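Explain this record to help learners:
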Amino acid sequence: MQRWQIWLPSLQRRLALPQTSLQLCILGMLGGLAAAILIILFRLAIIGLQLFFLERTDDFSTVAADIRWLLPLCGAALVGLIAWITGYRHYRLGIPFVIHRIKLKYGTMPTRNTLNQFFGGILALASGFSVGREGPSVHLGAYGASTIGKYLQLPFNSIRILAGCGIAAGISASFNTPLAAVIFVMEVVLREYRVHVFIPIMLSSVVGALVTQSVFGNVNELALLNINPISGWHLPYLVLCGIVFGAIAFVFNKNMMRLIRLFKNWPLILRLALAGAVTAAVGYLIPHAMGAETGAIFYAVNAPNDVALLLTIFIGKMLLTLFALGLGVPGGVIGPVFGIGIVLGTLLAIIPSAVMGDSSIAGTYAVLGMAGLMAATMHAPLAALVAVMELAHNPGIIVPAMLVIATAYITGVQFFNNKSIFLLQLDFLQMPYKLSPADDVLQKVGVLALLDNQYQLLDAPDEPQVLQALDKLEPPQQLLVKRQSETGHEYLLASYDVQLSMTGASAVQYLPLQGVNHQATMAEVFAILEDKREGAVYVFREQDPAQLIGIIRWDQVRSLLVKQNNLL
């Protein structure tokens, strides 16, 4: 037996506890490494394909018009082919799907969905669709990190944390924003803050950033923007800008969901074909609106005073993003929202630039537009603020960004009742993402953490043997009986029942026990025992389901809930 197989059970038991551990931190960094490798391969494939026909990556204005309109049509056809090969039922993709899997399936990601996301995302981004690379990055990161946990058969509560590590590393590797990646995972994906979760996710994000920087360098797209400090008289105008960002975020989310509902009954192939046709038509006329956010940044920098061009790019990018994501093209929403926000911010900077007679503040307003639109669209104000701080490398942007983000967020929530685009999609797709208070507590504790070995096991005993064993039993010790059944064998919990003895029947009560895998959490135990609120379950390892390794009693579940949140 290999050495790692000897210490693996103790590692599994350690990680079943919801507490910070060196082992989990190391595994989180390994998960970050796996995620970063996948993202690097993903990004290199996109760059390699684009450089076949583009002079500069993500700038589709550099390709001839007669070729440009063919790219999205060919891309849509190839994406549809991949979906057909892997199976259409495996086409649920993107951050909403990852949030659903994190909450309901502990972050484990199906392989076929991941293949769809990897190859479909490469083709979509390489062929000019207005989608972001962070959607596939989140999916690939969760898959890479959670696969390590699945291979080691770790408790599901720790696999969920590893999936969060992979997501953070994926976002960090995509945008070179390690801190914003951590905040995004805690604020949007996990939607909670726990120190034992935060630390490994933070380390994973660091690994993702370092590995990616070793390949692509320590640069980001916003390095093109010239971010200058702005004086206090801009602040009232920034409030108005925040209101505009909140309103545009509402329009974006509303129309995205309108398109999703309108075409929900269309076959996937037809939806992709329509997305390709719209992108081909708009891209033929407005090539600057194609691709992710980089092209929009380039033109915001080089033409900050060209109102007609910026307005055309803004309208074109809104249309392309809505149709691409609304019709199911694989990709993320964050990248396009960055691009739209940058162009919109640059447009709004024209008024103060005209007053000052100086357009040097255009870059500052572009970054503020990105932050405000991200905060209002995704309901991620803190992640948006941290992203701005990391991407801008300028502390002078913090106060204006806080004002714009707060105004945009409040405008969207208070006046438009705008919800996060991710939650809107999850609600429409009927993919659960909320947990009951009890499950929320119990999912964080693996069954190995509370494994009870205080029991006596009898193999196919007769009644006198059971009675004799019960007489000698010392609480809280339990008596288990193993008997043959039609399916092979079953375990029963034997105990005295006074009511039965008074009727003259046998004084022994037998409660059938259900088994749970050693990777299960206390939430699965609660689901089994909740109705009767008594009894126990037995725990087994997947390699040998017939051999129990311990039990979990109902009173242990009850004690955990009372101790954590007084939920019972």
In short: The beta strands are 455-459, 478-485, 488-496, 508-512, 514-517, 536-541, 544-553. Residues 22-50 form the longest helix (29 residues). The first strand starts at residue 455 and ends at 459. Residues 447-565 form a domain with the CBS-domain fold (CATH 3.10.580.10).
